[in-house]
Amino acid sequence: MTFKTLDDIGDVAGKAVLVREDLNVPMANGVVTDDTRLRATVATLAELADKGARVLVLAHFGRPKGERSAENSLEPIVPALAAALGRPVGFIADCAGAEAEAAVAALQPGSITVLENTRFHKGEEKNDPATVAAIAKLGDAYVNDAFSAAHRAHASTEGLAHVLPAYAGRAMQAELEALEKALGKPEHPVAAVVGGAKVSTKLDVLKHLVGKVDHLIIGGGMANTFLAARGVDVGKSLCEHDLTATADEILDNADKAGCTIHLPYDAQVAKEFAANPASLRITNVHEVAPDEMILDVGPQAVEALADVLKTCKTLVWNGPLGAFEIEPFDTATVALARTAAALSKEGSLISVAGGGDTVAALNHAGVAADFSYVSTAGGAFLEWMEGKELPGVAALEA
Fold first, then answer.
1. Distance (Å, rounded) from C-alpha 73 to C-alpha 210?
2. What pLDDT is attached to residue 355?
3. Is 126 a catalytic residue?
4. Contact between residue 55 and residue 49 where contact means Cβ atoms under 8 Å apart
């Protein structure tokens, strides 16, 4: 995949550059509670401002469905963005139209200004050409720095790339380069960890990965469906029994593709889903009682999985191995994450992780900073793992 970056943008002094960012941050009582996504914008916005551009930030917030609403305004996010950047940030109360055009014309070179929620316009999510043209009138160039919104073909994520000179921002560039190393042209052997509650939410991911990776490690509730497909009685465990035939099909396809699927052979089980339950025990998966639930991968399986990672060059991770939110069912996820982090730190493993639960689990394990790359994108990361073309990325291809 080849795409233009800020290295190719040329002289932007005095020019208006529209930058699509992800400012869809969590808020409580009008205050940003997690500025992770805001900090991710700094490299691109600061670089363009330092080059003398009039930087215009495009973003959405919430789901206003084409209607203006105070609760979906981007204005309350501006102070937190300014704090992340360490410089002033302005605000314009629209992202298209005569008033926005006049306000942009008055901006000084080197300024950074947030434009109001793109989704206040009905044409945004429809990728309506008139909306694209109206927003494009504000800028001389377009930079997409929001991988997390790249799976949407909206005016501000895809349409603008076709009518203005288009470039990938630094965060987008880092993401695409990391993903290329992970599954595009990875160094083999490649392992993938896929966890989560239900097979149904990750079917396309699993089907795609068996043809791409050498080792597929399945954890979380979805592992129970695969165990059931292999004739294991999983007791009261979360299990999609109606999908055992699909699990069998994935297992068969993996065999044909030379992909080894790793399922837990021991597990932490309990009779109730609670922290440190009295009924907690570790057992072989073939010895789960009818009134027990599998809630985490067992220590012997984790040790074996760690040995698998030591033979690999590349790792892609999406989803926890157990019910990591409650102790001690975070044990397997934490242990394997720490192994992956140590291997990454010493340079023997390229590790790329993504998805909300995954990021939370890696932060919980204290190792997110040691992975090669951690994506904060949810849906876009999942669609990339499914092998789907992301419109916002495809539009940037040179």
1. 43
2. 83
3. no
4. yes
Q: Are both 73 and 136 inside the same structural domain?
A: yes
pTM passes above 0.85 = yes
3-state SS, residue 90: strand
Residue 376 in 3-state DSSP? coil
Single out the catalytic residue among 39, 87, 137, 198. 198
d(CA 153, CA 193): 29
Whether 271 is a known active-site residue: answer no
> What confidence tier does 357 reach under pLDDT thresholds 50, 70, 90?
confident
- Residue 32: its H or E element: strand 31-32
What is the pLDDT at residue 356?
75
Mean pLDDT within 173-192: 94
3-state secondary structure of 297: strand
Please report whether residue 391 resides in a domain: no
DSSP helix/strand/coil, 138: coil
- Nearest Cα residue to 265 out of 236, 293, 288, 285: 285
User: Which entry of 37, 51, 54, 212 is annotated as an active-site residue?
Assistant: 37
Q: Which of 52, 378, 379, 387 is catalytic?
A: 379
Q: What is the CATH number of the domain that holds 96?
A: 3.40.50.1260
Alpha helices in 189-330 (DSSP H): 203-209, 220-229, 244-257, 299-310
Q: What is the mean pLDDT of residues 344-350?
A: 97
- Please report the pLDDT score of residue 376 as a whole number: 82
Contact 202, 319 (CB under 8 A): yes
Q: For residues 255 and 277, give the distance between their C-alpha atoms in angstroms, rounded to a whole number.
A: 38
Looking at the structure, tell me whether residues 192 and 151 fall in a common domain. no
Verify whether residue 379 is a known catalytic residue.
yes
Checking DSSP bridges between strand 141-144 and strand 215-218, what pairing results, if any? Answer: unpaired
Strands 314-318 and 190-194, bridge-based pairing: parallel
Can 356 be counted among the known catalytic residues?
yes
Catalytic residue among 65, 356, 366, 388: 356
CA dist 332 and 205 (Å) reads: 22
